[in-house]
DNA sequence: GATGAATGAGTATTCATTCAT
DNA sequence: CATGAATGAATACTCATTCAT
């Protein structure tokens, strides 16, 4: 009875939803949420303004979905080895993996950093960010302690700051430092900090 | 009927200009440039919309002046001891002073981080930021080298990232780590990184 | 694979057409023509937007059909006893029947009153309403005259206004007066007016 | 200091506010609230769309102000002679005055009837309308009783309906009956109803 | 210098309607 | 017959900017 099968409709929906989200992410990341208009998104995506509202209730909802989706892609892939013991190799792998995540999701990270700095845009973002970050801090803390640090709290702060800072350089000023070298140096520095 | 003296006019101009800039800084820092309207600035400053345009050509110009002014207050106070030798005490003082600058100019830093992440807002900002940063990197590089580091470039990267990251935590998530302790730990970590 | 018979198709058509009209009537009556969207009608009717256009050329056409249909249900059932003499009993029955019509077609009446007041929505409505009303006025006039009124024109005005007003209360403010009592009082008042 | 005096600004505001309200009333009355756009109002008023929002927060606020203003002009002028005894002359004067109010505020009444029929447009209107109407009903009831009616409640219903109906004809179909004659006949009918 | 009325282009959003399937 | 994706024009509303006073 129905003309296109349910699957066909689903495929179209999925494809268009992704198209809109990808396009919006590019623009939000580059210009910011408020400086990006629905017209621009639609134009860049090659669709009509109206269609956008066929898939999203509002511009804000696009952002929220992007945040949700970003959190998932970024944090779900982290193997925090909860409860277990983290070996040196695993810790290094975790750091390298995190750098890869930034490399491969640059726009998500750009968006995230901008939301972090201007929390009024998406009220829930900063909170969620901290919640998602906590297990990471915990894993790192346990590892640092297990390595015999005599100031695990202090080392955690220094290391967290260093990694966050490296990511920020990555995202905002990748030409200041060569990022592959930065990665090595950060890993080295972690152990210098811990083993003293 | 008596006309105001030139000095009186100048005083008024200066005072109003500062009022507008301060108010704009608060709003830009908190909500972002695009999400802040001239009406909001005028309302919060207790003046009329029109008056804003008596002192600034456009909303963009307010931002540009804020950037300029921010760069000046932040970087002018840095004593980089160019050409001379930086002692350990001077380096520590430099770091502490930098942390103080963030503490005391939180809104400027908020604005700066947001501009850093979304360069389309103020085209020249990122470039300028790098230019202003270069002497700082140079000073740090020289200091690290003078301390006998066997990888001064690498240590510079790690230390720069750590400081930048600490500032970001300061600005965006000051409740995650106690900032006075963070300051100590960063200083300690600097030397752990260098002396290895 | 067996094709549906012409009858089956016709049944479906009729059934769907009625479904759409009923749903539209509810919404038009409650919220008004302009405040009701095709989406809302389709959603409430449990069909797709597109299907609506399979049965009606436009939103306006749904309204026009509703008007037509309303006129028919309302006025066709009136036995005006044209040319013949209307007895007192027949007149009373006519009034009671009219009240019943309002009671049973409340939404139609709501829609009609709103169209009456805002004639721009359906250009032809007011005219048609007057045309359909004329034989009613004539019947009433003849009856009033036959009852020996010494000012039949004047009495017609008063009685017409009273009935119209009672219907309006019915439709717009049924809680102000108990409608079954109102019906009795209106009938009584008619004769008070005529017999003086 | 200020260019235009406070009074000048006030005058402009008052004048423009009135202009917008008058224009909006015309259009709301003729086409309905939802079918009237801000563009149409602005165009007809000879001002820009933006200016409308300098004076009113929203289209809805214009309507609300019109309702408020309408209630005031219509009901404030009614002398209900509360607590006192209403003479026959006073009652007649009240009816005549009410007819005049409709005559002179035709558009307000059009708007009001449309809001009465479609209460979703302005949630509070119907309620308010009933509240404002109550003292009128009370005054009429007392008068009817004082005239020796043996069914004051019933007579009130009939008379209220008649007046409301007459107003509706006035507003929606003034060419069906000559309104000055209608006025006389309604007054007459009132007494026919009461005195039986 | 100061005001706020006025504008017009822009923004998010809605909606009647079309059409491929 | 039926679906819902797609469009484009329209809608309510915002906002940087201008300007007469």
Automatic annotation (TrEMBL), chains A, B, C, D:
<dbReference type="InterPro" id="IPR001647">
    <property type="entry name" value="HTH_TetR"/>
</dbReference>
<dbReference type="InterPro" id="IPR050624">
    <property type="entry name" value="HTH-type_Tx_Regulator"/>
</dbReference>
<keyword id="KW-0804">Transcription</keyword>
<dbReference type="GO" id="GO:0003677">
    <property type="term" value="F:DNA binding"/>
</dbReference>
<dbReference type="InterPro" id="IPR009057">
    <property type="entry name" value="Homeodomain-like_sf"/>
</dbReference>
<dbReference type="GO" id="GO:0005509">
    <property type="term" value="F:calcium ion binding"/>
</dbReference>
<dbReference type="InterPro" id="IPR011992">
    <property type="entry name" value="EF-hand-dom_pair"/>
</dbReference>
<protein>
    <submittedName>
        <fullName>TetR family transcriptional regulator</fullName>
    </submittedName>
</protein>
<dbReference type="Pfam" id="PF00440">
    <property type="entry name" value="TetR_N"/>
</dbReference>
<keyword id="KW-0238">DNA-binding</keyword>
<feature type="DNA-binding region" description="H-T-H motif">
    <location>
        <begin position="37"/>
        <end position="56"/>
    </location>
</feature>
<feature type="domain" description="HTH tetR-type">
    <location>
        <begin position="14"/>
        <end position="74"/>
    </location>
</feature>
<keyword id="KW-0805">Transcription regulation</keyword>
<dbReference type="InterPro" id="IPR018247">
    <property type="entry name" value="EF_Hand_1_Ca_BS"/>
</dbReference>
<feature type="domain" description="EF-hand">
    <location>
        <begin position="66"/>
        <end position="101"/>
    </location>
</feature>
<dbReference type="InterPro" id="IPR002048">
    <property type="entry name" value="EF_hand_dom"/>
</dbReference>
């Amino acid at each position: 009875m129905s003309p296109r099968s349910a699957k066909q409709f689903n495929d179209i929906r999925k494809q268009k939803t992704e198209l809109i989200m990808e396009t919006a992410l590019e623009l939000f990341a580059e210009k910011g949420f408020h400086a990006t208009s629905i017209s621009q998104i639609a134009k860049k995506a090659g669709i009509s303004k109206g269609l956008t509202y066929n898939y999203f209730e509002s511009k804000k909802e696009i952002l929220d979905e992007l945040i949700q989706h970003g959190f998932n892609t970024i944090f779900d892939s982290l193997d925090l080895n909860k409860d277990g013991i983290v070996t040196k190799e695993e810790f290094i792998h975790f750091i390298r993996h995190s750098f890869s995540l930034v490399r491969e999701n640059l726009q998500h990270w750009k968006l995230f950093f901008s939301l972090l700095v201007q929390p009024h845009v998406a009220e829930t973002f900063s909170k969620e960010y901290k919640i998602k970050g906590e297990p990471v801090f915990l894993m790192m803390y346990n590892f640092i302690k297990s390595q015999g640090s005599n100031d695990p709290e202090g080392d955690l702060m220094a290391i967290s700051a260093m990694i966050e800072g490296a990511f920020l350089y990555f995202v905002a000023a990748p030409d200041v430092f060569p990022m592959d070298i930065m990665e090595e140096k950060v890993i080295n520095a972690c152990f210098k900090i811990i083993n003293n």
